[in-house]
Amino acid sequence: MFSRDRWDEILQALTANKFRTFLTAFGVFWGITILVLLLALTNGLKNGVTADFGNFATNSMFMWTQGTTKAYKGLPKGRYFNFKLEDVETLKREIPALKYVSPRHQLGGFNGANNVVRGTKTGAFSIYGDYPEFINQQPMDILQGRFISYSDIDSKRKVCVIGEDVIKAMYDQDEDPLGSYVKVNGVNFLVIGTFKASNSGDQEEDANTIFIPFTTFGQAFNRGDSVGWMAITAKDGISVTSVKPKILELMKASHKIHPDDERAIGNFDLSEAFGRVNGLFSILSVVGYFVGALVLMSGIIGISNIMLIVVKERTREIGVRRALGASPWSIKSQVLQESLLLTIISGMVGISFAAFVIFVLNYILDQMGPVKNFANPSVGMSVIFTALFILIVSGLLAGLIPANSAIKMKPVDALRTE
């Protein structure tokens, strides 16, 4: 039941020694501020690191060929081989859990030799031969035109989709690239679309990329039906890591590779790597809570000590109230309310201050532009509710010992205190 007299008495007790109350509250303020900031910075680091995965489906893996390390079925070790298009069909047919199996080819790189010519302009770019479904594995924003289609694949059309940095390097500012031609290693390709990298881990490289139909790539650059490497994505709800052993087993059997040869087929499991990163940051979040809680605990101990002093100073007052018939719970509840009020107010100020610091930090990051491995430090509402819960529990714990001390006083002994 609300009692204005009770709350006036509580406020009077807390403001009787303002400087002492301020120093006591500062411990809780600082502890909750450190807790929220640690979690925000951990989240910012997580956002920055996971951005390196880009928008590539995190339930994916890459697979390529390497030299064998074991002799098998009459074939020597050190043998090199290539994936074929029939391997793609084998994987799709034998492993229904796979959503996409995209064969890929790559030519050059934007840090390599000039491989693209348009009029008097030249440039070095990454040229990829792909199938249409690759855009579902690595989403990109189509700015103009369209991406590669199966009609392009079947007809082996000499068409391409170019990145925004290719446009900047090969075209004038107001020039429309659609319908124009670029020459890749001496072969002319019609530009049918332009794209922008979408939250990719390496936006610079993606923007310097040209996509052409996989079959056209094989014909134009003498790759036949070979496959440079594959991007494989499992269906939703199925981890690609769980089907990876079956994938490797099938490919080893298809190319007569010893079952125990672990090097012949190289692979990078993006799903597994993404899981490790998430696990690492889950641990860091726990560490953040632990360190923040330790700092907060020092503030709670300070409040408990001050409340003990307050109870000692009010010994005679407590004795008078007990003599007049005040119940032990009435005395105990007042001490707990004073402790809880001081803890919650100082904690809420700490949360507000931490939110302000996070806002300023994000503003600075927006002005500076992208920072490697760090982006958008923030905390969710779950963190705020958790902090509030910690504050309430801490406030009650801080007042519990002083409150028990207060009700243990005998009225006669309290009245004798000078």
From TrEMBL:
It holds the Pfam family FtsX. Belongs to the ABC-4 integral membrane protein family. Residues 21-247 form the MacB-like periplasmic core domain. Residues 290-411 form the ABC3 transporter permease C-terminal domain. The keyword DNA repair does not apply. It is a multi-pass membrane protein. InterPro entries: ABC3_permease_C, MacB_PCD, Macrolide_Exporter_MacB. This is ABC transporter permease. Its main location: membrane.
